[in-house]
Amino acid sequence: MKVKICGITDLETALASVEHGADALGFVFADSKRRITIDRAKEIIGVLPKDLLKIGVFVDEQREMIERIVDETGINVIQLHGNESPADCASFSIPVIKALSIESANDLLKVDEYECDYLLLDSPKGKYRGGNGVAFDWGLLADQKVEGKKVILAGGLTCENVGGAIQLVQPYMVDVSSGVETDGKKDKEKIKGFINEVTKEEGK
């Protein structure tokens, strides 16, 4: 089971996440309280392990800007968290994660429209696309399995509920942001605890 820590804004948290076993780090280039500059992301990514997934999160961003950020920072996976079409997602040369907001079983019908490398299933949008700390009904995924896709589960995950979410959904990866924060800042102990819970669940 892989773990993504999203909303990285400083080197210390990035390195701590890697040390505790994170497989992927997310850098938000969209409107968010966790938004990061190109220069800051480049500085952090430059010292991270080569095989780590460094995921750039974008919402309805122009293709040219996405490609510029990828080239300048070393991002090696693109996450599209807006209203991007299947054609948009298929047009990039590096792996793409398409995020879908899940409110009802009907929303799961959209998954077959996308042929990208990963699908991230998240809660309905709040003030921002993602990172709102709200879970959707994971039972929808237990009733209607997503076949043939690498599913990343996001939305309201915490140390307390990630084990149950994994049992129910069996995703490829779990994605956490606000669930490992204290007072709006990444908390290294919560990151460690979250990854430990995932590892514990994997070992069962």
UniProtKB/TrEMBL annotation:
Coiled coil: none annotated. Its EC number is 5.3.1.24. Belongs to the TrpF family. Keywords: Amino-acid biosynthesis, Aromatic amino acid biosynthesis, Isomerase, Tryptophan biosynthesis. It holds the Pfam family PRAI. InterPro entries: Aldolase_TIM, PRAI_dom, RibuloseP-bd_barrel, TrpF_fam. It catalyses: N-(5-phospho-beta-D-ribosyl)anthranilate = 1-(2-carboxyphenylamino)-1-deoxy-D-ribulose 5-phosphate. The keyword Amino-acid biosynthesis applies. The lineage of its organism: Bacteria, Bacillati, Bacillota, Bacilli, Bacillales. It is an enzyme of class 5 (isomerase). Gene3D superfamilies: Aldolase class I. The keyword Transferase does not apply. Residues 3-196 form the N-(5'phosphoribosyl) anthranilate isomerase (PRAI) domain. GO terms for molecular function: phosphoribosylanthranilate isomerase activity. This is N-(5'-phosphoribosyl)anthranilate isomerase. Pathway: Amino-acid biosynthesis; L-tryptophan biosynthesis; L-tryptophan from chorismate: step 3/5. PANTHER family: N-(5'-PHOSPHORIBOSYL)ANTHRANILATE ISOMERASE (PTHR42894).
